[in-house]
Amino acid sequence: MEGPIPTPSLTFTVEEAAEMLGISRTFAYEAVRRGELPAIRIGRRLLVPRAALARLLAPDAPPRANVVLSSVIQKGSSTNG
Asked: Residue 47 class from Cβ within 10 Å (0-12 exposed, 13-18 middle, 19+ buried)?
């Protein structure tokens, strides 16, 4: 008999979100602090909700989200490499 089917996590760490976005860990934390990357605090942990990240990355995201994400990616690219 097999165990329970694993379900995808509802959140990512800031580090995981940074990796998915192709930005540095430091820049991701700065984006969270500025409100450009949505995150929730649970205790001492900062977590990025999967749904919020998906909304930011959606092709039909509201214009503000696209501008913020573009800003995050452009700034992150210049500091990453």
From this structure: buried
